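Re-run with default settings, no changes from the original entry. Doing this only to confirm the output is reproducible before filing.
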Amino acid sequence: MKFEHWAVFINNESHKSAFIRAVLNGQPPKALNAFKDRNGSLFSKLAIERFIDEEDRHGNKIITKDHEQSLRSMSSGEQKKALLHYLLAKQPEFMILDNPFDNLDIDSQEKLTLTLAAESIRTVFVLLISRRVDLLPFIMNHAILDKLELKVQYDLNSIGPQLMAEPFSGKIPEPPQKWKHTTNELITLQNINVRFGNKPILQDICWTIKKGAFWQLIGKNGSGKTTLLSMITGENPKGYGQELYLFGRKKGSGESIWDIKRKIGYFTPAMTDKFTGYHSVENMIISGLNDSIGLYIKPSEAQQRLAKEWLELIGMWPSRDRHFHDLSMGQKRLVMTVRAMIKHPMLLILDEPTAGLDDTSAALLVALVNKMARESAIATIFVSHRKEPGLDPDQVFELQLHEKGSKGVIK
C-alpha cells in the first residue's frame, strides 16, 4: 500500500481522540496500514495549549525560542506557524493535521495551504477536518470517521450540511424580564484608541450598536477583535478616559462591571472546552439566568418552564437529564448558545461559536442565531473568521490592520 496523503472527515459522532492515538501509536485502521510503525507528529490546538501551559508554568519556551513574544500573546495564525515550523524541523514521516484552519482568517488559511502544499513532497499528511471547504487540493484519498470506524469515501458530494430548510419550528420563548433602557443606542465607541506598550492595537474606532441590530465582527488574526470585545463588555481598563458608553453610561462614571455583564449574554467555545462539571442539560440552560456555568441553587418552577420551552425549540427536551459533559460538540454549542440567550440580554455576543463544528452542526447553529436575531429585540454580535453560509447579519464591522492600529470599517 502506498504511503499517501489522506483526508478524514469528522463529525459530532467521530471518536477523534481515539483515532489520533491509534495512528500515532502504530495501530491505525486497516485503510491506513501504510502508517503502521511510522514516525508521526500531531498538529493541533491541544498541542499549542500544552506548549502555552509549559511556558506559563515553567517559563520554558519550546516552540518560540527565536521569538521575543510569548506563545500566549501571539495570534492564532502566529501560534500555528510556530508549531508547524517546530514539528517539521523534527522531520516526521507523517503529520496529523487536526482542523488546522480553525480560528484562522482567510489570508492565514491561504498561507497555511501554500506551506502545506510545499511540504507535501517531503511529509505525508493525515488531514482531520470538520468542514468540506477545508479539504486540501493535493489530497486524493478521502474517508469518514464514523465513531471509531474509518470508511473510505469516494463520493465527496455526500459530505456536507444535511438540514431542513427551517430546522426550528415555533417561536422563540418570551423574555423572562424587560430591560429598562430609554435610548435606542446600547453601546457607543467614539474615536477609541488602544495600545499595549509600544504596540498600537486599535485606532479611532467608531461603532454604535443599537437595539435589535445584528452585527458580524470580522478581522484578520491579530487585528484586535478580542480587545474590542473586552471594551464592549467593560472588562478592559483602557476604556477609562475615552468616549466609551455602555448601556447609557460612560465608562468610569461609577458603573458596576456586574451590572454591565448582567445585560450581556456571552458565549465562546473556550468557556466549555475545559469544563468538567457534570451538570444536567436543563441546569446548564437555567444557569444562564444566573450568569454561572452550571447551576448551584435550586431552580424555580418558572425557570424550569422557560428551560423546557427552549429545549423543546432546539429538539433537546428528551435529553434534559443528560450530563452536559456527555453531549456531542454540536449539541453543547446549541445548549450554550441558548444559555447565553435565555435571559434575552440586551446584547448577545457569540465569539467563534462554530469553530470546530462539522458542516451540519455549524449550519444548525447559524439557523438558530438567525432565528433569535429575527424574532427578538436583542442586539447580536457574531464573531467569525469564516464566511458562514446562511448567516444573515444586518451589517458587518471589519477591523482592518494598519501600522498605527486597526481601523473599523462598516460594510
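The mean pLDDT is 91. DSSP finds eleven helices and 16 strands in the chain.
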